[in-house]
Amino acid sequence: MNRIDIDFIMDSYEGAIPNYSSAAKELGMWESEEYIFDKYFEKDKDILDIGCGAGRTTFALYNRGYKNIIGLDLSQNMIAAAKEINKIKKYDIEFVQGDATSLEFEDNSFDYALFSFNGIMQIPYSKNRINALKEIRRVLKYNGTFIFTTHDRNEEEEFKEFWNSEKERWNKGLQDQRLYEYGDRITGSKNEKGEIYIHIPDREEVLESIVAAGFKLVEDFYRRELFAESDKVREFSGECRFWVVKK
């Protein structure tokens, strides 16, 4: 049985393009995102929006006055969807296909970077996620800021029984053999909308990855601690932890 790889990740999001396009056109930015980006980003600086999908955060930032933005996504079809919306809106935003673990930008290219909607945790294997963090740090300028989100498996009471059972499966070697490490999940179904891979960390794991990549933690918070998002936002996204780190 093959391990989860980049082809699986790319294929899994083909069916999600209409949903992401709709979010880019209609949902826009979450209240929590508005808060964190306005707190740490200046509007005349250079921003890299990693895992931009069809451009939900990219367009929302542009509409808030952040004009020097590049949107990047692993999926060429997601980028095509973003470019189509960009054309309709008559905006001047650059969208490019790219891999967060091997960014095709020069060192010190951006003042800020973001990786929204838990996207960094859809990179399989911890060493690859740390490589992505190192690449993001590389392309940031001195003292540059990176903002991203993750789930937190210790914060959701309704999943604690699942994670306890999952730990037993890993200890016994009975886990899904496509996975790499405890915390990995494959959700969905082959027969419906498709299977989705995501890693669900705890806070300590993310802190260790931040340090391993050479970042310094500035702030982190669990979304619901500070914000009661709209029903539409909560339907689109699960609860998450925001992370703000600096180079």
Structure description:
It is a single chain. The mean pLDDT is 94. It is built from 10 helices and 9 strands. By secondary structure, the chain is α/β, with parallel strands linked by helices. The longest helix has 14 residues, at 76-89. The strands form 2 sheets. A 7-stranded mixed β-sheet has the order 3-2-1-4-5-9-8, with helices on both faces. Strands 6-7 form a two-stranded antiparallel ribbon. It has a single domain, classed as Vaccinia Virus protein VP39 (Rossmann fold, 3-Layer(aba) Sandwich), CATH 3.40.50.150. The chain is globular, with a radius of gyration of 17 Å. Helix content is 40%, strand content 22%.
Task: Write a compact overview of the structure shown.
The chain is built from ten helices and nine strands.
State the helix count.
10
Biggest pleated-sheet summary: 7 strands, mixed
Low-confidence stretches: none
Q: Please tell me the CATH architecture by its name.
A: 3-Layer(aba) Sandwich
Question: So what's the overall shape?
Answer: globular
* CATH top level class name: Alpha Beta
Q: What is the first-to-last residue Cα distance?
A: 39 Å
CATH topology: Rossmann fold
| Beta strand count | 9
CATH superfamily: Vaccinia Virus protein VP39
Give the ordered list of helices and strands.
HHHEHEHEEHEHEEHEHHE
Overall pLDDT score = 94
Number of domains: 1
Q: Which structural category fits the helices and strands?
A: alpha/beta
**Helicity level, as a percent range?**
25-40%
User: Largest sheet, order of strands side by side?
Assistant: 3-2-1-4-5-9-8
The gyration radius over C-alpha positions equals 17 Å
